[in-house]
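Task: complex structure prediction.
Instruction: return structure tokens for all chains below.
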Amino acid sequence: MRKRLLINIAKSLLLARWRQTLIAAIGVTFSITMFITLLSFMSGLNDLLDGLILNRTPHVRIYNDIKPNANQPINKSTQFTKTHNFISSIKSDANRQAIYNSEAIIKSILNDPRVLGLSQKLTAQVFFNDGSIDITGSIFGINPTAETELYHFDEYITTGNSADLTKVNNSIILGKGLADKLLVQIGDAVQITTSKGDLFQLKVVGTFQSGIKDFDNVQSYASINTVQKILSVPNDYITSIQVKLKDITQAPTVAKQYEQLYQTDAEDIQTANSQFETGSSIRTLISYSVGITLLIVAGFGIYNILNMMIFEKMDSIAILKATGFSGKDVKSIFIYIAISIGIFGGLMGLLFGFGLSALIDQIPFNTASLPTIKTYPINYNPRFYLIGIVFSFITTYFAGWFPARKASKIDPVVIIRGK
Amino acid sequence: MEKILEAKNINKFFHDPVRIKVLEDLSFSINKGEFVSLTGKSGCGKSTLLYVLSTMDTDYDGTLLIDGIEMPKKDEGFLAKIRNEKIGFVFQFHYLLNEFNVLENVMLPGLKLAKYSRAEVEHRAMEKLKILGIDHLALKKSNHISGGEKQRVAIARALINDPHIIMGDEPTGNLDKKNSDLVFDIFNQLADEFKQTLLIVTHDPSFAERTHRIIKMEDGKIIF
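Output:
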């Protein structure tokens, strides 16, 4: 009963001067709109930059490195265990680059609950023959479906279709720079010479643009089977297994385990791209500082508006108190007023923030490095919206609470005499 | 005679800018049904005394009893309840809430008391407005009526909870002759017909003369 009466009074006070109320609410709306828009936009850009690396790089890469054998014969000799052995002119192992027992390893990795998926890869170094000119390049043998699923391979294909790699026999997708040099288009054939001197004819089914020009000038993709044929190796021959994990932070641990378990080399993304790690964390730091600054500025704005609004209603407070409303009642009334402005303004802010982000999402943004991105990126993370509404609720609550508490404590005569 | 209000040794100081004694050891009482006027020159402390007696000012020394109950100085919630239930107040500058219409202004203290249902409070408010002859204004916004009408609405609001005492701080000070007479007649009628206790601060001698009893103040003291 008491609560309903107080809410009714709050409502009347709000609606009686609806213009002032609206202005206060607009203040909140504006702050929250800016917060949502800027954070969505910034984190969208951040994700885009992160994606440049993260989408293409495996979390853990399993391969056989070219390096000298760690177990040199002299170390195994019982005669020299207590001495320090110097060996000069060690040569790297003639170890083959293929991963031993790859099928079993793949099966066991796929059973690991931390793993999202994996793709296999092998590389062939070849010459692309264009009349009298030979262009050095490499062909990656991939599984286009797995590659698209895990590493967004499709996003870099500018012409043609990645699925054709498996559908069409002896087919190839060329880097855009390479295709331009060879003057070939989809449907044309290119001739290659392997390092062993074998000649092959491959059919072009597409071109890709990775964003790194040097890369596009020398690289191309074919199916695993095609590359195995080019290298004339059996079909369990692969040179690397690229694993994507559910949680990227586990990559170093997983890499270490796999190294032990499968007796190969394994590299995690954090080691392979340490400069990226630094850049990413700095960008995150920047977004957070901008977000917090925005919230603080918005908070002060909201506080000021509400403060003024409440002090303008001092007369009403005096009358209410003189006619028997207690300080607690007065405080409740003004907190109801503040919170309704906060919630209304905050919700409008979410709405406008969403609208403004959606608008930015429509602005054209063309970049050579990301052929599939046509407009500015926006991250519609619901967390921003949650922070926005909770923040507007909390700031308006306190913005109402402090002056309301002050008003509730003074004797009404102080206000009346002050006239 | 039943004492409605009793003041014992009331002392009050103003501290700003210098410490001045405004009320000096005041003791008096008001009986039920009395129509008392409190007069004196400007600055003699009559309004200050009234605010102390109305519990709206708690910064004083001494004892104040309303309806035989001693008023605590600290318990703000309790004092608010006393004001709501036992005291009706009429200010010089009407002090209606402009955000509400006339009827709602009158109803608010009644709704706060919550002794009657909303419908009953509304009915009672209409009755009070009828007594004061302003029931036709019930649904008007309170800033759309004249000064004299506002003061009558304020009196109706003071009456809504059937208070033990009505206090007025120069309720006619801001009104012309015709309207002050009207307001006086209302007070008189309340005292005669409804045996309402009234304590009115005024510096208008013709107003004071017509009341049952005059308390005259000078320099913070009661002289008779």
